[in-house]
Amino acid sequence: MPMTATTITTTGESVRGELELLRQSIDNVDAAVIHMLAERFKYTRRVGELKAQYRLPPSDPAREARQIARLREIAESARLDPAFAEKLLHLVITEVIRHHEAIARTP
Fold first, then answer.
1. Rounded distance between C-alpha atoms, residue 91 and residue 49, angstroms
2. Where are the beta strands (DSSP E) in 1-107?
3. In what residue span(s) does the Chorismate mutase domain sit (predicted)?
């Protein structure tokens, strides 16, 4: 079936419409990720306060290693690159430790 100007225009509009719907879904997922990270940081803040109160070190390498292994498994089952998941978790852990160090310095 030959492509006409109407077919091309309709197809272009259809693709743009689908792209917009997909991008809206991506935006929703991004917002959910940010909200989940904010929720996670509420808990890690409390952990940091307890660590400061009892003079515990801001990082826990054994816990971090267990978390990395656990989240790599979850990533695999979710069909997400485990190396990417590990990089993301390292970023989060680094930020958590920074927060814990700041909490420990607070009088």
1. 20
2. none
3. 13-104
Tokens of 40: 């996670």
Give pTM, 2 decimals.
Answer: 0.82
**pLDDT 10s per residue in the chain (107 long)?**
565 656 556 778 889 999 999 999 999 999 999 999 999 999 999 999 999 999 999 999 999 999 999 999 999 999 999 999 999 999 999 999 999 999 999 98
Q: How far apart are CA 1 and CA 24, in angstroms?
A: 33
User: Looking only at Cα atoms, what is the longest distance across the chain?
Assistant: 76
How is domain 5-105 classified at the CATH fold level?
A: Chorismate Mutase Domain, subunit A (1.20.59)
